[in-house]
Amino acid sequence: MSSFVFSEKPIPIDSGEGPYLYSDGTEYLDFGASYACTPVGHCHPEVVEATKAQVEDLLYVQASYPNAARTALYDQLADVAPDGIDNVWLCNSGTEANEAALKFARSATGREKIVATTRGFHGRTMGALATTWKGKYKKPYEPLIGGVEFVPYGDAEAMEEAVDEETAAVILEPVQGEGGINPAPPEYLQSVRETTEDAGAAMILDEIQTGLGRTGTMWACEQSNVVPDILTSAKGLASGLPLGATLCPEWIADGAASHGSTFSGNPVVCAAAGATLGVLEEENLPAHAGDVGAYLREGLAERLGDEVRDVRGEGLMVGVEVKRGGNAILRDLALEHQILALPAGRTVVRLLPPLVIDESHADSVADAIADIVL
Ligand SMILES: *Cc1c(COP(=O)(O)O)cnc(C)c1O
Q1: Position 2 pLDDT exceeds 90
Q2: Which atom of ligand 1 is closest in space to residue 98's alpha carbon?
Q3: What's the CATH number where 144 sits?
Q4: Do residues 312 and 241 both lie within one domain?
Q5: Does the C-beta of 99 come closer than 6 Å to ligand 1?
């Protein structure tokens, strides 16, 4: 049997360490962090140790019984979450975190309507998918949940017009990932915050790709001083073990109706997440990502000049918009330079390296992309 969902690339991976993956003795620089899932690098020793220790003690217990690894993670999340956000629901993926966010927003407000943005990406289950922009992902699976309206990302006035007294939630990313690495100006996020507050609607910030230090701060929303009503996290939260989190303040938690999931708060996954958050803080990785990210973007812009349409991003969430097929560039990067990166649409090369990379890695990647493009 083989996967009919993912088309597999001809690079079988055996092991990983830091920013590297190994395929039959060949070292690859993982500049996509395997879908942004390894912010502290592959197999960070502290994450491996904490996970191993938990595996020895207990693989699973239902979330209705307290468990030390889970309780510790709840406390760590309370520490790192924006002010006023001190409730969490743990699930197993990004799409589930958003699914729960949409459910909680509807039950807490007693309203139905959801406003999402063009080029947004929020996951692939029926609810989250309904708030995702791309037709190719949605059309063949319709009908999805109803009541979702789209407005152009970045257009504060369109948002103001769309959000009203019937709106349960607005959902958006502070920097769009899948949609092409599109950072929102701080004023836009601040305006969405005001609009939702005025209408009594919940502002859901999907930080599944932007969170955990990637943009230079723990959460991207810190840079615009915006605190959402619901913040979702996943991807690198447990260094690649399946974990999603829906974080919210009291009014959402109080208004949440019945919800649940068998694997919620699995102790092994919680132990991995606790260690991951610990390393992010100890190694000061958010600030490091801000610095190396700026260095990487400058290096790319200097080398590539007018040969590309744009180099943009925040921290180590970087997009290079190219003039010819992005996929051919990604293939050359992998096969000729042993650098693994990601697409974002057909023309954007997306760089989401582990936050532990240094300037020499940034130079190698900028050199390699220049070698291919120029
Ligand atoms: C990856 C991603 C999701 C979906 O997460 P899954 O774990 O794949 O379900 C949702 N939102 C954003 C912004 C993402 O990058």
Answers
A1: no
A2: 10
A3: 3.40.640.10
A4: no
A5: no
